Amino acid sequence: MKIIIAGTDRTEEMLRAIETRARTFAPVSKYSPQDSALALRSAANPDEFAERFHALLRHHRAINTDSLDAPRRPGAIGAVIYMAKQLMWRLLRHQHHRVTGQQNAINELLTAAMDLHRDATRRKIESLEKRISELEAELSRLRPEERR
Amino acid sequence: MKGALVHQLTAGFARGDAISHEAMALGKVCRDAGFQSRIYAPAGRIAPDSAGDVCPLSECRPSAEDIVILHYSIESKATDVFLRAAGRRVLLYHNITPAEFYEPYDSEVAGALRRAREALPEVLRAAHAVWADSAFNASELQAMGAARARVFPLIFSPEPLDIPPDPALFSRFAGEWTNILFVGRIAPNKRIEDLIEAFAWFHRNISQSSRLIVAGSDRSAPAYFAMLRMYALELDLDSVLFVRFVSPEGLAACYRSAHLFVTTSLHEGYCLPLLEAMHMGVPVIAHGVGGVPEALGGAGVMYDGLDNRQLAALFAEVLSNPELRSRILESQRQRMRQIYARSVGAEFLSLVSEIAPEG
């Protein structure tokens, strides 16, 4: 571990300060490692990446409307602005939920459409692979002069 | 030797790309030093808006008196042209990103990177002179037996940044927000996911009035970019702004709005954006890998071995401690004075004078 500031090694004192601060931090992700987008980094190749990406998309299709994420600025004015935002959020919530509900439904339909398309493509590839194998087998049975 | 034509061969050409930028800057250095200069790239790899700056590779026909410089970082048709070219051949090594970084995202790029590394010994043998754009890159070549590798650092020119910022982008980033900036290609070796996670810790625990601005082209690894978008969504971060490729005015707006520049990259040949950030007076925090220590030259903050939670706390320290911040900025000003004092033209002429005549 190393922290160099302006060319001076300040690892010891800086590490103490940042560790003290970092220990108070609340967690940032609610996803398990296998359900996280970061799991895609261990895909062996782009095909596996695409498969996993498609599967992970299911966890990410819904819009989160659980909380009001409004930055809170310091001071009395900041507190008043924050309260006003909370009030506006209560007033707009109903309409907002209707819109996000529609968006979630559209996202689900799009994911379903991708599933259907992927399954159809897979079936087509399987049938083509089968046909190629059959043709190759037929070809191998022919004598060289019959192969033209 | 003055008056000779310098042919620069690149694997591709696009505005905003670091090697294309270097080729343009080197072209200016050549012209200022009394040489003629021309840049070539494979026809299919020239961005439409750059067609006026670069010629198709098929038009490259150097004579025995000419100098042919190959900007080498990935396999391309430019390498074949270089190996057959008449004239004095110079390899300018920009380092090759390890192929493993690209394997999950793009087999084609991973293959081209692997083949570039495999072909490197042959390219080294064919070169009359070997230049590397950082001491780190030169040491890699020296370890391969190229004892004559010389260092010709990436050319930094402040002029493109000293312009009025894009007003739309500048006003978008304005307000009482803490802007943390990353500039660079969106590529897997840059480990932007680490930066996003560190920012998430910072945003959730230190300052909700903060943004992460990621400025850089997403063309080189679209699948990786999709993963980053998904990761930002997973962390419920709508304050991660991917502004993608930006114009010079847009880049100026990004730097002028930034309170902190951070790179968590795992592989860097040099890292020119560090110089850009320091020039623009933005404190930098950089992962000390590859050519980064060299680019920083003892300025800014360099770390190694921190996890993303600790990194977030380091952001907080640098942003909230005025004494620390001013010490960092002073070190950066000092570093930039060294960079401004560099005489690129003289360095170039000295390197050119060392090139052995053909045969």
Write a brief structural summary.
The complex is a heterodimer of chains A (148) and B (359). Chain A is mainly alpha-helical.
Written description of the protein model:
The complex is a heterodimer of chains A (148) and B (359). Chain A is built from 3 helices and 2 strands. The mean pLDDT of chain A is 87. Chain A has a domain at 61-146. Chain A has helices spanning 11-22, 46-57, 75-141, and strands spanning 2-5, 8-9. With 148 residues, chain A is mostly helical. The N and C termini of chain A lie far apart (69 Å). Chain A has a two-stranded antiparallel ribbon. Helices cover 61% and strands 4% of the residues of chain A. In chain B, strands 3-2-1-4-5-6-7 form a 7-stranded parallel beta sheet, sandwiched between helices. In chain B, strands 10-9-8-11-12-13 form a 6-stranded parallel beta sheet, with helices on both faces. The two termini of chain B are 16 Å apart. Chain B has helices at 18-32, 77-84, 107-126, 135-143, 167-172, 192-205, 222-234, 248-257, 272-279, 292-296, 308-320, 322-340, 344-353, and strands spanning 5-9, 36-41, 55-56, 67-72, 88-93, 129-132, 150-151, 178-183, 210-215, 240-244, 260-263, 284-287, 301-304. With 359 residues, chain B is of the alpha/beta class. The model of chain B has no long low-confidence stretch (mean pLDDT 94). Chain B contains 13 helices and 13 strands. Classes of the chains: A mainly alpha (148), B alpha/beta (359).
What is this structure's SSE topology?
The complex is a heterodimer of chains A (148) and B (359).
Chain A: E1 2-5, E2 8-9, H1 11-22, H2 46-57, H3 75-141
Antiparallel strand pairs in A: 1-2
Chain B: E1 5-9, H1 18-32, E2 36-41, E3 55-56, E4 67-72, H2 77-84, E5 88-93, H3 107-126, E6 129-132, H4 135-143, E7 150-151, H5 167-172, E8 178-183, H6 192-205, E9 210-215, H7 222-234, E10 240-244, H8 248-257, E11 260-263, H9 272-279, E12 284-287, H10 292-296, E13 301-304, H11 308-320, H12 322-340, H13 344-353
Parallel strand pairs in B: 1-2, 1-4, 2-3, 4-5, 5-6, 6-7, 8-9, 8-11, 9-10, 11-12, 12-13
Helix pairs in contact in B: 6-11
